[in-house]
């Protein structure tokens, strides 16, 4: 890349010379397109495995475009993968932690070496814009490095403890649980898959990895990077298939010692309640959000409108951190809404593989139907200010394209409380910060939240009282989105998470291990 081009793309990259970036992306996209239509196996114990049936992964940009075919894994494949993982886990867990760190760092290297290829696949497979896809890929490598540093800084989680007797020597040691099932979502198919599985592996565990059925190709590329780094095949098994046909069999398997899952609250709660039987086992989950922003009467309205728009409509609103509701002080309501609508109208919508497109398709037909149902609901008791329809004509007829939508709604409207995972923003008018916080906290979710104000005391009050694990103030690059490893911990409260300690944060890796106290009388 050129000297003036950014060396790393994050979700907040802006105002940089992207000429070299787009040239490299174009080359990678051409190479990826040349590989379309192949059939890929499962990888269990390092060996390719075929199932009785396959499924076609199509692009949400153009549903006639078959990207690849993958295996429909079933309960038998889940069983084989778990057994392979259990057979090798103790050997991996017994290695000096320095060796595990060295191996995972190699994986980060291979992800960076193939980052344009991976990002190109993400764009085709998920419908992300180029910058979002590259941010996803860069974050994956950064997550590995950050988690490796955590292990190093903690000296492998070996900590001397106190003494009651002069000849007593006691240490606290964190040790692996065993085998983790890693069940990943479609929306951040490389970064979340990498972060969850790398943390488990660094903790000495083995992993059976099931990517989203919407992102199997990206998941395969992660498996290839781990293999290139020297991670044994049985230690990281790659299985594909549906949640009902494969996912349920995987997390219910008695040989699975822990689950790390990112997805819907409904599925997450089912896993949480049914996973532990003989004894309590760890379930590490991030479960979506209904994320609020507040715009005060002293806010910089340009920054507020920019931040809300970007958080609401990047990746077509299909982020658990997306800003899906904004509460605006009545004194600036009209002015803010006017700016918000203006900025949203300026979004370039189309094929996200093109360099100037910001907004692409939603992931599948079900997502489009959810969006259209929300538009119908908003018209009852509220007003759609922009969008509200399926986009039609030309390219739009080939994929799942929904218009970025802004709706002015009464504060008790159901859309203020229901996660849609769609490009749909609810706007409400409030009289004060207190009212905004009260409304924000009514939702079952508590993932991210943002505030725009010129008053420091309002920022502190908002942070202290809003029920959210990730808080931002006056952020024009994203009112509620854009967390980065080691910069913002990504922690869900309430219905948005299960542990109170999030990915991207300093306490993540420890959750994949359990403590053992070791006392020796000398």
TL;DR of this structure?
About 35% of the residues lie in helices and about 20% in strands. The protein is an alpha/beta fold and about 525 residues long.
Structural summary, described in words:
- The protein is of the alpha/beta class and 522 residues long.
- The protein has 2 domains: 42-153 and 178-287 and 501-513, Aldehyde Dehydrogenase, Chain A, domain 1 (3-Layer(aba) Sandwich); 291-491, 3-Layer(aba) Sandwich (Aldehyde Dehydrogenase, Chain A, domain 2).
- Helices cover 37% and strands 20% of the residues.
- It is built from 14 helices and 22 strands.
- Strands 15-16-17-14-13-19-20 form a 7-stranded mixed β-sheet, with helices on both faces.
- Helix 1 packs across helix 4, helix 2 (75-94) runs parallel beside helix 8 and helix 3 (97-113) runs antiparallel to helix 5.
- The longest helix is centred in the N-terminal third of the chain and has 24 residues, at 130-153.
- It is globular.
- The relative contact order is 0.14.
- Residues 1-5 have low confidence and may be disordered.
